[in-house]
From TrEMBL:
It comes from the Eukaryota. InterPro entries: RNaseH_sf, Tc1-like_DDE_dom. One of its GO terms (molecular function) is nucleic acid binding. Residues 7-150 form the Tc1-like transposase DDE domain. Coiled coil: none annotated. This is Transposable element Tcb2 transposase. The lineage of its organism: Eukaryota, Metazoa, Ecdysozoa, Arthropoda, Chelicerata.
Amino acid sequence: MDQWATVLFTDESRFSLNTDSRRTFIWREPGTRSLPSNVREIDHYGGGGLMVWAGIMLDGQTPLHVFERDTVTGVRYRDEILEPYVRLFRGAVGPEFILMDYNARPHRALLVDEFLESEDIRRMDWAARSPDLNPIEHVWDALGRAIATRNPPPRTIQEMKTALLNEWDQLPQEMINCLISSIKSRCKACISVRGYHNYNC
């Protein structure tokens, strides 16, 4: 746990007004798709959505960053994320600091690599196609559920932004710590199934 305490787990996620991107998947009996009990209206609030970024670590988290435009480039990732957030966390943690970002194209841009090297920020090696190992994925799920239970629900992009920022600040650090503490067992479970689907993650 001392080693995990120096890791900042980061990710981007999209939250939409007109789709339930945080839905729970269930199995239905064949032929029951159109039964009233299996049909739910989801396009309540108009279109649009927001792309957000955040980072979590043991006993800490970054502010939630809301991108003003959806497309995240290497330049935007460096200027809007690495410079104002990650660099400060590296300074607070010290030389043991490790950045965990997944293998998205903007994260692997040459200018991003150059920035990380100039700031002496180490990046964690991360297995491809393994989002369930990243504890922040479960934090996104908790944030989505919190937004879904708001009454009244967000009806505009500005209301969605305000709701996301407010709910992010309300997420309990104990939950985040518990998710990070579970990484060892998650990794063991994935190794035991040789990287195939693991429903315990």
